[in-house]
């Protein structure tokens, strides 16, 4: 075996060992299926022991790293797979469809989900220097290859969960490195674009955030465009390039997701939930809810609760 082959073999073994340690640590901290909070506010751990149905979900700006199993996110006919070799970055809030596709009781789907901090990204750009901007607008999510430096940084953060006394001092350092590794990794220029003030992606990210804050109010495209210093035509075109939908479609999906949360978590009836999120017509709400979630409100909520009892 020549030197290069030996080094490559050792590197592969080290990478596999790191992946195995990450899976073991997540499994130990997730005794049951579902999403588990941690002592690090921005970090959550996920475990699923079986594949899941396709589920419309509101994806927040996050980094998702899978230690075992695999999942897909679907948006506008495109599928993004994330697994132990590929991480997912969601750079702006996006309504998507998610599905765990590989999971068993013996080898459950294990994933960590880390909120992306725009201020951390902006600070790192100032220190490391901006990357070359993208030639055009990119979609607000991407999948990229996991590399050893990123995996090492993630493991350091996970190990800190066993020594809570060290978290206040060392967790910010580990989080900073994780953000940096994503920023300089494959397709990291997309995060750079979003964090750079007055860039087109940054303005669209701001428009998304304003829609999230005002989704209950009647939408004025003119006012939204003025708020982010864009023309209405540019806002329409560039918003769709980043999110695959118009601002009006985006607002509608935000309202439907919030109505679903109210029904599922707070036990509110469909008509009341529709009214709370801005629908005047219950029949219109029911039609649009069925189009997005696959069944009328009451039936879909009952199915979700039934599946949760069986899990």
TrEMBL record:
Signal peptide: none
SMART domains for this protein: HTH_ARAC (SM00342)
Residues of the HTH araC/xylS-type domain: 205-303
Native organism taxonomy: Bacteria, Pseudomonadati, Pseudomonadota, Gammaproteobacteria, Lysobacterales
UniProt keyword list: Transcription, Transcription regulation
Name used for this protein in its record: AraC family transcriptional regulator
Organism: Lysobacter silvisoli
SUPFAM superfamilies the UniProt entry points to: Homeodomain-like
GO function terms (MF aspect): DNA-binding transcription factor activity; sequence-specific DNA binding
């Amino acid at each position: 075996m020549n030197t290069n082959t030996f080094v490559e073999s050792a590197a592969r073994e080290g990478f596999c060992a790191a992946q195995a340690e990450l899976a073991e640590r997540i499994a130990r901290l997730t005794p049951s299926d579902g999403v588990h909070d941690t002592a690090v506010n921005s970090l959550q751990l996920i475990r699923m022991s079986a594949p899941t149905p396709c589920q419309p979900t509101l994806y927040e700006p996050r980094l998702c790293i899978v230690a075992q199993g695999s999942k897909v996110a679907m948006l506008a006919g495109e599928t993004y797979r994330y697994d132990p070799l590929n991480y997912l970055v969601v750079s702006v809030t996006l309504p998507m469809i998610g599905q765990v596709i590989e999971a068993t009781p013996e080898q459950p789907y294990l994933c960590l989900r880390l909120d992306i901090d725009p201020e951390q990204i902006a600070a790192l750009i100032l220190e490391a220097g901006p990357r070359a901007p993208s030639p055009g607008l990119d979609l607000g999510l991407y999948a990229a290859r996991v590399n050893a430096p990123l995996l090492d940084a993630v493991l350091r953060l996970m190990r800190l969960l066993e020594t809570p006394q060290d978290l206040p001092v060392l967790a910010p350092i580990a989080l900073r490195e994780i953000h940096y590794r994503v920023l300089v990794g494959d397709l990291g220029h997309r995060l750079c674009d979003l964090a750079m003030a007055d860039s087109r992606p940054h303005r669209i990210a701001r428009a998304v955030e304003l829609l999230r804050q005002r989704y209950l109010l009647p939408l004025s495209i003119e006012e939204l465009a003025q708020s982010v210093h864009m023309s209405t035509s540019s806002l329409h075109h560039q918003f769709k390039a980043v999110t695959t939908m118009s601002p009006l479609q985006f607002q509608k999906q935000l309202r439907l997701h919030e109505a679903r949360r109210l029904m599922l978590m707070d036990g509110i009836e469909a008509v009341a939930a529709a009214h709370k999120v801005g629908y005047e017509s219950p029949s219109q709400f029911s039609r649009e809810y069925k189009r997005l979630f696959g069944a009328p409100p009451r039936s879909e909520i009952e199915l979700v609760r039934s599946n949760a009892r069986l899990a």
